[in-house]
Amino acid sequence: DRPLMLARPFRAPHHTISYAGMVGGGHGLPRPGEISLAHHGVLFLDELPEFERDVLETLRQPLEERQITLSRAAAALTFPANFMLVAAMNPCPCGHRGDAKKPCRCSPLDVRRYRRRISGPFLDRIDIFVEVPRLTKEELMGKPMGESSQSVRARVERARQIQSERFRGQRIFSNAQMGVREVRLYCPLEQNAQQLLERAIDHLNLSARGYHRVLKVARTIADLEQSEIIKAAHIAEAIQYRSSEESVLEGGM
Predict the structure, then answer these.
(1) Which residue of 115, 125, 126, 202 has the smallest Cβ count within 10 Å?
(2) DSSP letter at 10?
(3) pTM score of the predicted model
């Protein structure tokens, strides 16, 4: 008897959540879990390495297929799970690795163990990695620098309109939903961009999935600049967001 939702959901489950709580389940007919309750919205996982590994691994299928099928003796049900995954984690167990003011108390082995709670295949499904350093008191208390939120919103809305026109008449609504065929069709590269991407494949040892995700991010960056063709600068920015994946795995950030 609840009314229809008019706003996109934001779900932030605690890191103690169970397998069934995340993907769905329960006795009798399966009930939707957090990934389905976040459909067309955001699933935010804070303290990512603190989640049980099997809970994180269950996200791999819905991140690819945007749905989850639960099979029980009573029935097999498929729930939608087209969510945006946003996660946050400390750089190490004590939280001070890389901090210029507070020394890290963790050994290299502690850092590697902490970060390897997250598997490579799971990280391979994340498009953008961003390090967030500690802010100085001047940065914290001073006037914000950079683009205003209104300006960013306008650019995003223009980019979404470009994508809406690009995929008109198809069952695709954003660059993130492109398959291999659409990536080949809608991601033309200038020559310098192609050469840069080829070098990145070798340097970062990109998987096929990682390669296509770099292209989709670069396509979005180009859309934000209203550029029909993907340029070397767009590829470079997309690679920059991807290159921190290796640091997470190796504990080298």
Answers:
(1) 202
(2) E
(3) 0.86
**Annotated domain spans of the chain:** 10-141, 149-250
Q: How far apart are CA 89 and CA 247, in angstroms?
A: 13
Structural class in CATH, domain 10-141: alpha beta
Whether 171 has a pLDDT exceeding 80, the answer reads: yes
Angle (nearest 5°) at CA 252 between 251 and 253:
100
**3-class secondary structure, 76:** strand
Tell me the CB-side half-sphere exposure of residue 48, using CA atoms within 13 A.
22
Average pLDDT, the chain: 89
Give the integer Cα–Cα distance in Å for 205 and 246: 10
Report the range of poorest mean pLDDT among 11-25, 133-147, 221-235.
Answer: 133-147
The pair of structure tokens assigned to 31 is: 């009930």
Residue 31 phi, psi (nearest 5): -110, 150
Q: What is the DSSP string of 126-184?
A: -------PPPPHHHHHSPPPS--HHHHHHHHHHHHHHHHHHTTTSS--SGGG--HHHHH
**Residues 209, 211: Cα–Cα separation, whole Å:** 5
Task: Give the lowest-confidence range in 123-127, 218-222, 223-227, 244-248.
Answer: 244-248
Contacts of 96 (CB under 8 A, 6+ apart): 102, 103, 104, 105
The conformational region for residue 84 under phi > 0 = left, psi -120 to 50 = alpha, else beta, is beta
